[in-house]
Specification:
Layout: H1 8-19, H2 24-30, H3 35-48
Length: about 50
């Protein structure tokens, strides 16, 4: 499997969607980010409040 580069706007969009109430599964299904990246991003966001 090829490693994809995640751009800054994708991180921003994922955070905005999480704040809006979308689940991790919905974001992954939309193709915005993968489960691994989104899990890491979610952990960082929760640690920072």
């Amino acid at each position: 499997m090829r490693r994809r580069r995640i751009e800054l706007f994708q991180h921003w969009r994922a955070l905005v969607r999480r704040r809006a109430g979308d689940t991790v599964r919905e974001i992954v299904r939309s193709g915005l980010m993968g489960c691994d990246w989104l899990g890491t991003l979610r952990a960082l966001a929760e640690a920072q409040g």
